[in-house]
Amino acid sequence: MVGKQDTEPEENMSDIESFKQEQRVFDPPADFVANAAISGMDAYRAMCAEAEEDYEGFWARLAQQNIQWTKPFTKRLDASNAPFYKWFEDGELNVATNCLDRHLTNGNADKTALIFESDDAKVSSVTYRELYERVCKFANGLKSLGVQKGDRVVIYMPMSIEGISAMLACARIGATHSVVFGGFSAKSLQERIIDAGAVAVLTADYQVRGGRQLPLKAIVDEALDMGGCDTIRKVIVYQRTGADVNFNKDRDLWLHDLVDGQKAECEPVPVGAEHPLFILYTSGSTGKPKGVQHSSGGYLLWSMLTMKWSFDIKPEDIYWCTADIGWITGHTYVTYGPLACGATQIVFEGVPTYPNAGRFWDMVQRHKISIFYTAPTAIRSLIKASEADPKTHPREYDLSSLRLLGSVGEPINPEAWMWYYKNVGGERCPIADTFWQTETGGHVITPLPGATPMVPGSCTLPLPGIAAAVVDDAGHDLPNGKGGLLVIKKPWPSMIRNIWNDPERFTKSYFPQELGGTTYLAGDGAIRNEETGYFTITGRIDDVLNISGHRLGTAEIESALVANPIVAEAAVVGKPDDTTGESICAFVVLKRTRPEGDDAKAIAKELREWVAKEISPIARPREIRFGDNLPKTRSGKIMRRLLRVIAKDEEITQDISTLENPAILEQLKQAQ
Ligand code: WT7
């Protein structure tokens, strides 16, 4: 069976019901439609028809039109070793030249590429020419250290012009980067360095967010001191604050010393279209994160097409995607997509609530942002904050520059959608509710802002050429109105190519035999509207949680808990939360007797901090409950579906006849 074995489908039925009953339809505004690149549903349907008629020809045409190839491709899709699909395989390109050099000769050289706003609201910017020069110097610096095509480089940097330059510098010399989000712990960083076999870490002295400084360099030191990172030769440190850091003279180098005196030009290294541009680790249903491997050609193509299709990007737009470069959204919609399209964009170091919850709206007003892309969790927390402090409400700001809004990372509930539409978009901006995943490389199901009528809470229809469908466990198509597994039946250019070091896990996780072995299994449930065929995503079907749009595996958190010497056993479940989507509830059995009262509170606190340190503060359980045991079947399997009910403080109505130890349920009902 595919997916979670013990999930009760009725669990999130109330949400599904509210989506199903959503009747409101919002047509894209007429003036938006008139000026959009894809204007009207007929234009959308014509593109779908073109893809249908000549699938490979469709993508080949777009790849020729959008990408500057140093060697044109003659092969289109190679499915001979499916599901290890290859696109445009004999073509060669350099992704960094597609993001930078092309703009030196097309009139964009003096156009602003990046406008950086620091946590304390200091603003600086670079033009395309300046960014090109910075990246070339950085690339020459890396070359001088012996970093070569095919080497892996870990980037553990804050949101900054330097962080984006680091990614592009790697791309320029054909090195494969792996960005690790600055919130991840030393242990998570160490695991990723080892799995990727990285030769260098690019980091900063500190990261500044919300008025607080996080010592990135010290965390890198701690990761390397844990051992096993023998492939690392150098640590490059960008000086963000100038505060003290430890320096190991044989290993560490300041970024400014590395680039000082380097030439502002660097011959790009052409790579094959399938060359891994990057590896990005994400959570799966086992304890070990998966290194999602992406290509160069197909990935770049998708980043450009979706900027044009879903965001209708225009030369005069001021674009802002609030994601961090540590996530896939920051790869595709901060670094590669916008730059390849020659956009002007905001790069923000801080958080939405500092110095107050009006920060986003203040920035939209000051920078005259026209396209704004953020996560539902941010919107929901700003709704709450604006109720508590009306000065931070969007109505207090001039947001008239906005013409398009985007949402990403989790389902957006209709209430949050309506608030965003009315209060931020002034009822004149379409909302692109973009469904996608680390593995898909870019948007796959999303409304086209100048075409698709929008329904709050639905990501609407697949992009042209995306063969999305809802199927049952055996891979049979389900009729509209019936919930099932979300799949994509044909390969597309920006799809995941492999799991780094683990091709077996790649085929098992994404192309299960039950579905025929070549259909992509997204890992989400979905249901299509009976009349419109619109998709609504109903949540993960595996043991993956979505906390504030961040993806975490329950198994990962469980392994972190049992790594603590006092813990015997742990089971982690998600609990619905109004702001963060889900929150983490952990059920723990200690090696000693079950703690109660203040003792339990103290241990729960200790364990919460332990998990934050082992993985990341994002993974810190909201709640920990202790039992003498966990509810198990006679064969010893933990009955997580019961734990999900207990976490919600609901009465257990399910059949518990297969439960070995029903008495345990009473203990676990007691929250700390
Ligand atoms: C999971 C992927 C997409 C880039 C950022 C997160 C959920 C994402 C939506 C949406 C409903 C969504 C899914 C998906 N998700 N966008 N618009 N509507 N659910 O990437 O960390 O790989 O997480 O996020 O569950 O599988 P990710």
From TrEMBL:
GO cellular component: cytosol
CDD domains: ACS (cd05966)
Binding site for Mg(2+): V562, V567
Signal peptide as annotated in the record: none
Source organism, top-level taxon: Bacteria
Cofactor(s) required for function per UniProt: Mg(2+)
Domain AMP-binding enzyme C-terminal: 556-637
N6-acetyllysine sites (modified residues): K637
EC class: ligase
Record GO terms (molecular function): acetate-CoA ligase activity; AMP binding; ATP binding; metal ion binding
TM spans (from-to): none
Binding site for CoA: R209, G210, G211, R212, T329, S548
Alphabetical UniProt keywords: Acetylation, ATP-binding, Ligase, Magnesium, Metal-binding, Nucleotide-binding
Nucleotidyltransferase is among the record's keywords: no
Keyword Signal part of the UniProt annotation: no
Residue sites binding ATP per the record: G409, E410, P411, D433, T434, F435, W436, Q437, T438, D524, R540, R551
AMP-dependent synthetase/ligase domain residues: 106-492
Free-text description of this protein's post-translational modifications in UniProt: Acetylated. Deacetylation by the SIR2-homolog deacetylase activates the enzyme.
Residues annotated as domain Acetyl-coenzyme A synthetase N-terminal: 44-99
GO BP of this protein: acetyl-CoA biosynthetic process from acetate
This enzyme's EC code(s): 6.2.1.1
NCBIfam families: Ac_CoA_lig_AcsA (TIGR02188), PRK00174.1 (NF001208)
PANTHER family: ACETYL-COENZYME A SYNTHETASE (PTHR24095), ACETYL-COENZYME A SYNTHETASE 1 (PTHR24095:SF14)
Family of this protein: Belongs to the ATP-dependent AMP-binding enzyme family.
Function: Catalyzes the conversion of acetate into acetyl-CoA (AcCoA), an essential intermediate at the junction of anabolic and catabolic pathways. AcsA undergoes a two-step reaction. In the first half reaction, AcsA combines acetate with ATP to form acetyl-adenylate (AcAMP) intermediate. In the second half reaction, it can then transfer the acetyl group from AcAMP to the sulfhydryl group of CoA, forming the product AcCoA.
Protein name: Acetyl-coenzyme A synthetase
Source organism: Oxalicibacterium solurbis
